[in-house]
Amino acid sequence: MRGGALPPALLLAALALALAFATPRVRIVSLIALAITLGALSQLELPRGWLEIAFLGCWASTVVNAAAVHLPGGVGWRSGLALSLNSGVWVTAVVRLAGTPSDLPKACLMLIVLIPAGWLVARRAPIAVKVGSSWLIAIAILCATLPFLPVTPGYLPDHLE
After folding, report:
1. Which of 84, 85, 110, 143 could form a disulfide with 9 if both were Cys (CB 3.0 to 4.6 A apart)?
2. For helices 77-98 and 24-41, what crossing angle results, to 10°?
């Protein structure tokens, strides 16, 4: 879960699930804002010391995006734009610090989740989307807290190996 493509992919999957509860116009504007953010920030050089902050921000944003499926009335203009801009910042940070340039398009493929999720919400079966969001919340919380836990036997190679 420390690679360059997987954390951003899960963040963008959570964004797609949140945008499934938005109107088509909000979806389009949010995706355009995401694309502009990704394009603009992918040219920046970031200090290597920001790696842990980038991962924590990525996982925290995954939780926020996945929890947005529970907003009453769905994702609106402001929240959709805010979620997209925030996602773009953290996706770019993780890819720039822990990945390769080819990781960004790989992560963006997860936005395809918006199509079946939007279809399920339109068919009044949003529970499946909310279950997927709950799974993403659990994974993100586990991944965010793991670096803060003390090292236990089995996580690091010992002197016998």
Report:
1. 110
2. 30
